[in-house]
Write a structure and sequence with these properties.
Helix content: 55-70%
Largest sheet: 5 strands, mixed
Number of helices: 41
Oligomer: single chain
Radius of gyration: 36 Å
Structural class: mainly alpha
Number of strands: 10
Shape: elongated
Length: 1000
């Protein structure tokens, strides 16, 4: 057999592949070709003699073998290659007959059923159970090995079926032990016929057992927890001792070698702090441990955890409670380095520094199975908190999910999937030789030839080439994800920051990198490396920073005004409460360094946000984030995923804040880097606000209903006003809201434990919503809320019934309130009420008004705004004469004037640009309309960037150089003077157009 690729001799989709529940292959007796060659002719002759002896012991074998010469050829080769399988066949020829004559699917289903039911019967002793389980294991292992070697099944199905058998054997043993303890008066079960059901005893399969990926001679990793109140202990203080005795018996039943062999070597050491804790731990104590002391390797381990025995429903409850520990709200980026350090420790301990063939460990060595698993699990830890699709257990399925989510490309997925099953196939063959839990290839040519032949290769050369290709592929992909060597001895030159004096060669290196004040930069670097900031106080943080320093200096040095940008980064580090998260992130994602430079040179406000909440950078790990805006539905789906593990109301509010702050940051990054413009930024920020506010509103309504019940026939609509209504939010915007409600007739009080009348009920609902959005929590404020645009402003009730709202708008509202109403838009609540409210608002605006009064009121309102809120400087693009307020007032005036003239109106709540495009032609000459829309587009772009990058007024003389440069680029101007000249031209024109419109 030739080796065209590293999977030569091992296909991942055999035509005769068997999957239980699918079409059953013809079986061993119908083999058309033999996939194996014997290890030697001498061994072949010896096996042939054994086969003749078997036919004498089991006469029915003779006609079977005579009728199937290919089968006989296969068995000679297989038994010559595997002493373990040969010994079973010699000792149990009836089993060989059964395996030959029965399809694998039916045989394995029977065997798994026998194992699961082996605890049943009158007075089943430990010894009898051990005998039954060992016979079943022998059948399963013998049948699977022969079908696998014949290529009638593959490593995937072998692993899955072995895992099913292990779960059945473990379940049977647990049922046996629980029933014995019940009959001995130690515990009290709910049902003797189903001992595990409702018992609260949780047996989790970890690692390959949990993922349905057991290898041929695998041990099984189990962790056992229990809910004490479910078992009715005669004395709860005895619980720990009772379980210790039961689990020692479990290990003996499964693991002890007898004349029938063993079932599975069993390891209980993955429980919390195994050196200091009992073999089984109460659920509450386990959850306290993981929440308070759980480590990153334990998080990685629990990705694959699965209830395999005991009370399966309790097991699922436990894993659901543990999910926030495994899949964090936001990533502790130190986890990446932490997991990689585990891999380095394995390398150091096992001595696998190079890829070889002879003596190489295909599991733990370089390019081995563990590197593929770590590759997958690390990225699951990164992204699983936000994406439920990335919380799966199986390696192949998660490689596909990572590709689907854009974390890896399709080629990486295919290469690693193919390599994974090729290496698993080799691992199985290593273990099939003598049923040893080994992952190491032989060191001698003769024994290596045995593995090569079992894997279907012609010789060791072809096998070695295919294996090396596979492992090099894995190593390359693994290195791309993990390995970042220290770079201080880099090609950049000397970079030494120890001692008090500057190293002359280091200063020269810094100058050569593009810095004008190398002494100042060297002083800053010494400050970092001496641990004078909180962010650099830990040894681990300084180690990460040391590795990062050369690349960091290089990227900052390439920026305009590099010294200023790096000194701002220094100020940012000084405020950072801890640095290891950020340093680990940047060390593992070099492309993000250039983004940090952009932020430091242009956007101090974003830098402050990162310093206060480093987790906002989490989203930058999604490779697609800078190239595309997520659709609104996609964003809502991500939020639902993120909220799915919230444990209570306060946790949900914190998660809303985390999600919103991260997504606002990502929207800002897209604007800063020019991926989206100012108008798309406004729409994106508004979409985000709507999704988050709607989620908060649902949570608040649920809380209110829990405390106060519901009002019969109550319907609610939450209406966005101002820039939230017109989809034009900017960074840092508050949101203007009105709550409108209605109910059927004279509603009774709410039906909950603390009833409220309708008015108080909806007022309480509104107040809770305001608190949910604007109250500071550990994760900050979600949105500042302004409700002054409700009827009667701050003097009116916080929630208004729809008939009263309509009556007020028709009879008492001022013109400016109708101007505000042109931007009103329901964003959350009951769909029918949202539609009814939108129709009512549109009807109010459609009612004709006096055009002269509208013009006079708009003009006077603008004068009042100028008097009460004068512009801070010429760059106050909102308030300057001819600025955004003039344009917005123009659009709102057109709305009301069109109504006065009986024209068809747009729907309320459109962006200002769309209102101008729809109504402008009726009121403005084409050149004036073009000027107005040009001014709106430019000022929207500039104001969005300014609001994103800095707090407070913009002064070109004091602003960061990067911000000035970004504004000039947005305005298509060579420098700030030209941009200011263009703004003066446009604002002068806007003021003229506005005054003409409102003067008539």
């Amino acid at each position: 057999m030739t080796s065209g690729g590293f999977n030569a001799g091992h296909t991942t989709g055999h035509t005769a592949r068997h999957t239980t529940g699918q079409e059953t292959p013809a079986g061993l007796a119908a083999l058309a070709t033999c996939a194996l060659k014997p290890i030697s002719q001498t061994e072949a002759r010896s096996v042939s003699a054994d086969l003749r002896a078997m036919t004498k012991a089991e006469p029915a074998l003779q006609p079977r073998l005579e009728a199937a010469p290919v089968l006989r050829e296969f068995l000679v080769a297989a038994f010559s290659l595997s002493p373990y399988l040969r010994d079973i066949a010699v000792a149990h020829p009836a089993l060989l007959l059964r395996v030959i004559g029965q399809p694998l699917g039916a045989l394995l289903e029977e065997t798994i059923f026998e194992a699961r039911e082996s605890w049943r019967g009158a007075e089943v002793s430990d010894t009898l159970l051990m005998e039954r389980l060992r016979r079943a294991k022998r059948t399963a292992a013998f049948a699977l090995a022969l079908h696998d070697l014949a290529r009638l099944t593959d490593a995937r199905d072998s692993a899955r079926l072995l895992s099913r058998f292990a779960s059945a054997a473990t379940s049977a043993t647990i049922d046996h032990l629980l029933l014995g303890a019940h009959r001995g008066g130690k515990i009290r079960l709910q049902d003797e016929d189903r001992p595990s059901d409702g018992s609260g005893v949780i047996v989790l399969g970890m690692g390959k057992l949990g993922a349905d990926e057991l290898n041929y001679s695998s041990d099984i990793d189990l962790v056992v927890f229990y809910e004490p109140e479910m078992l009715g202990f005669a004395d709860i203080l005895d619980a720990s001792d009772i379980f210790a005795r039961l689990l020692r018996r479990l290990v003996r039943i499964l693991q002890e070698r007898t004349g029938d062999g063993y079932v599975f070597r069993t390891d209980l050491r993955l429980r919390p702090d195994p050196g200091a804790t009992p073999l089984a731990i109460p659920v509450e104590a386990a959850l306290i441990y993981y929440e308070g002391r759980g480590q990153n390797w334990e998080r990685a381990a629990y990705i694959k955890a699965r209830p395999v025995a005991g009370d399966l429903e309790a097991g699922e409850r436990f894993l659901k409670a543990l999910r926030p520990f495994v899949f964090r709200k936001y990533l502790d980026y130190a986890a990446i380095a932490d997991i990689h350090s585990i891999k380095r420790q394995i390398h150091a301990h096992k001595g696998h520094g190079e890829i070889a063939v002879k003596g190489h460990n295909v599991k733990l060595g370089r390019g081995g199975i563990r590197e593929i698993e770590f590759f997958v699990q690390t990225q699951q830890l990164i992204a699983g908190g936000r994406s439920a699709a990335l919380r799966g257990r199986e390696t192949e399925a998660m490689l596909a999910a990572l590709a689907e989510a854009g974390w890896i490309d399709g080629r990486t997925r295919d290469e690693l999937t193919q390599a994974y099953w090729f290496l698993r196939d080799v691992e199985h063959r290593i273990q099939m030789v003598r049923d040893e839990q080994s992952h190491t290839l032989p060191t001698t040519e003769a024994e290596l030839k045995r593995i090569a032949l079992m894997a279907g290769f012609a010789d060791t050369k072809a096998f070695g080439e295919a294996l090396s290709r596979a492992m090099r592929t894995v190593e390359r992909r693994y290195i791309q994800l993990f390995e970042r060597e220290a770079e201080l001895s880099s090609d950049l030159g000397n970079l030494v920051f120890t001692g008090q004096k500057d190293d002359p060669d280091t200063l020269e290196t810094i100058r050569g990198l593009g810095f004008e004040r190398p002494q100042d930069i060297a002083r800053v670097m010494r400050t970092w490396h001496n641990g004078r900031y909180r962010a650099t106080q830990s040894v681990e943080a300084r180690e990460r920073l040391t590795e990062l320093t050369p690349r960091l200096l290089k990227v900052f040095g390439e920026s305009r005004r590099a010294d200023e940008a790096l000194l701002r980064f220094d100020g940012f580090l000084a405020k950072l409460p801890a640095g290891i998260q950020l340093f680990s992130l940047l060390g593992n994602n070099p492309a993000l360094l250039s983004l940090i430079v952009t932020i430091m040179s242009a956007a101090p406000r974003l830098a402050d946000i990162i310093a206060a909440k480093p987790h906002v950078f989490d989203g930058m790990l999604d490779r697609r984030v800078l190239n595309e805006m997520p659709e609104r539905d996609d964003l809502a789906g991500r939020l639902d995923d993120f909220l799915s593990t919230a444990r209570h109301y306060e946790d949900r509010l914190d998660r809303l804040r985390i999600f919103a702050s991260e997504q606002r940051f990502l929207i800002g990054i897209r604007l800063l880097t020019g991926v989206i413009d100012g108008s798309r930024t406004g729409r994106a920020l508004t979409d985000l606000a709507e999704i988050v506010v709607a989620a908060a509103f649902r949570a608040v309504r649920h809380e209110i209903a829990e405390a106060h019940g519901e009002i019969a026939g109550s319907r609610v609509a939450l209406v966005a006003m101002g820039k939230a209504g017109s989809r034009e939010l900017t960074a840092g915007s508050d949101i203007d809201l009105i709550l409108i409600y209605d109910h059927d007739g004279d509603a009774a009080d709410s039906d909950g434990p603390r009833p409220l009348d309708a008015a108080r009920y909806h007022a309480r609902l509104t107040q809770r919503l305001i608190a949910a959005l604007s109250a500071p929590t550990a994760e900050g404020v979600l949105y500042e809320v302004d409700m002054r645009l409700r009827p009667s402003g701050n003097k009116g009730p916080v929630a208004t019934r729809l008939p009263a709202f309509v009556k007020y708008q028709r009879e008492d509202a001022w013109t400016w309130e109708h101007m505000a109403l042109t931007r009103a838009r329901p964003i959350a609540g009951d769909p029918d009420m949202m539609s009814t409210t939108a129709d009512a608002i549109q009807a109010v605006i459609r009612e004709p008004s006096d055009a002269a009064v509208v013009r006079k009121d708009v003009r006077e309102m603008r004068v009042l705004v100028e008097a009460e809120k004068p512009p801070e400087n010429a760059w106050d693009l909102k308030l300057i004469p001819g600025g955004l307020v003039d344009i917005e007032f123009s659009a709102q005036a057109m709305f009301l004037l069109a109504s006065a003239q009986g024209q068809a109106l747009p729907v309320c709540g459109l962006p200002t640009m769309e209102v101008l495009e729809q109504l402008g032609p009726s009121f403005l000459a084409p050149p004036d309309l073009a000027l107005l829309t040009q001014a709106l587009a430019l000022m929207t772009e500039l104001s969005q960037i300014i609001r994103l990058c800095i707090d407070g007024p913009f002064d070109p003389q004091q602003a960061p150089a990067g911000l000035v440069e970004r504004l000039c680029r947005a305005g298509d101007a060579p420098d700030i003077k030209v941009l200011e000249s263009e703004l003066r031209r446009l604002t002068k024109a806007v003021r003229r157009i506005f005054l003409a419109l409102v003067t008539g």
